[in-house]
Amino acid sequence: MPKQKSNPEFMSGIPELLVLRLISRHEMYGYELVKAIEELTASAIVLGEGVVYPILHALEVAGALKSRRKLVAGRSRIYYSITAAGTRRLNDLSNSWIELARAVQAVITGSNNAALT
Amino acid sequence: MQPLLKELKERLLRRGLAPRHVARYLEELEDHLKDLASAGVAAGLSSDKADESAFAKIGTVDALESVACERRELYAWSYRMPWMPFLVLPALAVPIISVGLFFSLGSTYSTRLVGADETHLHWFELAWSILSAFIFYGVPILIGAAMAFVAVRQRMKWKWPILGPLVGYMLFPVLPFALFFRHPEDPSLDLSTLYVFGAQMGCMILPFLVWQALKSVRAHRTHTTLSIS
Fold first, then answer.
1. Chain A residues close to B31, C-beta within 8 Å
2. B71 and A58 in contact by Cβ < 8 A?
3. pLDDT digits over B115-133, tens only?
């Protein structure tokens, strides 16, 4: 049986892409981030409420994000903001995503022209 | 801490995630639960219903565990390279600390006690004996305690905390070397000590064994108390 080709980076990179994109706008904490993803994607993408934290921590370990504690309304929250390395990573992921989306669109519409628009 | 988070903590530590990441994850999840519950109350749910709904939304322990364990970057280095804290680092730390301590006192002997009276020499001999005992038993036990702390914090089983020092002991069972400090004037007052590296590695197992024994006793007592009640 031929080995099935897949693009795990494409599949697993979506939450990371969304997280980096949203945090690139302004610093956010986990709950705020999950709600923002839900709202902006009209609930088409709903990240599990607890799923976002390991992604944030891994991005921080990789140097793409940095965190700081902030006291807001009497509660200490951990806010994440993007770093220069994170911005580069976001650009790479965005470009990959746009390329893949165009390719998929071309297949769906059956026209190579779609890839050029 | 909520029972769900307690269970998650134990599972993540046993799977090898770094304690600092586990602590942070739990702290943020706890905050997230509070936010979800507050949102539920604001939406008109009773406090109990809001809590219930928050737990349902946050996910099961299995789901929370699996998503964290997928991230290799979050694993503790003692889990990824257990030979480092349980074999290589102690094997380096023991001789460096021991020889360093001997030399610090020995060099004092060679340089500062020239022409010293008997009282000073007596105090020095006493200090030397105490230091020797500390180096032979205290240093390996302190290093062993640090290893046991890492192992306990990481919920490690017996394998590495015992295997590491045992391998060290087997590799260098008889690696003695002697240290001499000459008295500048009277050779009969020369100081020497025999240093056996393998034996020190063996001593490092003790703190972990003691901790395991105490844990067994405590578990036995709890079991007995539960059986009686």
1. 29-31, 75, 77
2. yes
3. 666 677 777 778 878 888 8
Q: Which of B32, B35, B74 sits opposite A58 (nearest CB)?
A: B74
Domain for residue B69, yes or no?
A: yes
Residue B47: which domain range? 3-75
B91 and B150 co-located in one domain? yes
With contact defined as beta carbons under 8 Å apart, do B183 and B191 qualify? yes
Query: What is the reported pTM?
Result: 0.74
Mutate to test the interface with A, among B4, B28, B74 (most CBs of A within 10 A): B28
Q: Per-residue pLDDT tens for B65-89?
A: 998 998 888 999 888 888 888 888 8
The more confident residue out of B199 and A59 is: A59
Residue that is last in its domain, among B75, B98, B115:
B75
**Could you tell me how many helices (H) and strands (E) chain B has, helices first?**
12, 2
Residues of chain B in contact with residue A48, where contact means CB-CB under 8 angstroms, are 59, 63, 67
Say if residues A16 and A64 touch (Cβ distance below 8 Å): no
Structure tokens at A75: 């509660």
CATH of A8-116, picked from 1.10.10.10, 3.30.1490.20, 1.10.1740.10, 1.10.3290.10, is 1.10.10.10
Q: Are A69 and A77 in contact (CB under 8 A)?
A: yes
